[in-house]
Structure of Histidinol-phosphate aminotransferase:
Amino acid sequence: MSIQAPQHIQKIAPYQGGKPITELAREMNLNVEDIVKLASNENPLGISPKADYAIQEAILGIARYPDGNSFALREAVSHKFSVAPEQIVFGNGSNDILELVARAYLTSDSEVIYSQHAFAVYPLVTQAMGAKGVVVPAKDFGHDLSAMLAAVTDKTSLIFIANPNNPTGTLLTKDALYAFLQQVPQHVLVVLDEAYDEYLSAEHKSEAIAWLKEFENLVISRTFSKAYGLAGLRIGFGLCHTQVADMMNRVRQPFNVNSVAQAAAVASLADDDFVERSYALNQAGMAQLKQGFEQLGLTYIPSFANFISVKVWDAAAINQKLLQNGVIVRPVANYEMPEYLRVSIGLFSENAKFLEVLTKILKS
């Protein structure tokens, strides 16, 4: 073909999500209802009853364009997190927030720092802008903040940090993160990806939103796809300095968050009981999987999120056998972890089926 995209675009490997249940059913000739999906860190409880009701109401108005400024949701997020409405940016999932930061602040001369084993979208948005990605080797599967600071140059524009990190589940302490922000040069934006914060215990909960008053170069990314269960509606938000939000909104697509998603998100923020139930289920499921792994003699990376990565050595082969038995998990070889599988926390019965099938595979 005579029409060619730029080299930095041609070199991008498209993001691969978890295998859909219907796709596996077609491939393996399985019944959809017999398949367990523990691959995409979704909420096994589904969505809040309040969100469900809001969705049914919002559907009646889908012939109209959504509120491009997300007024009702902006007010709800502002109240929930005690930030000014002007500090909030909404996106089509939190991935959109990451991309908006990149589009607003990166050029082909920029450098972007992120950790080994960190979320795959960081290098994707960096490469899409023609910027240079600087990968800092992980420390115990987590972020090495000292090494990341040492990697900062005059060309550094962004630093991406996931806390907890996906796919390893590792968590940085609040003191370490705060000290890190104090040392980052003011010309560098730090994007703190907190997609899994709702799954943290009270003692580990992030305090980063309060830090926005002190650090003008801090951007916090949150999502409704995990604990709130709205993965299919694609909605996330960023919290940052008003001038940063203004720049991000200048490159944001009009109507990037649909009206149903906005209504569901407003209702979800008002349902603390659902989030608490989701947290409790996750804690119990995490304990269930850990116990199962220990009984099988498998090592795992201690996780603070709603998934856990377990070492199974021949992960590709074991993953294929799991698929054949109707269990979908996530191989993470693309994260330089070829011996690991990432397993989302599901319902008790789903976790049990995974452990049962895995046991049979390992003992066969």
Summary: The longest strand covers residues 156-162.
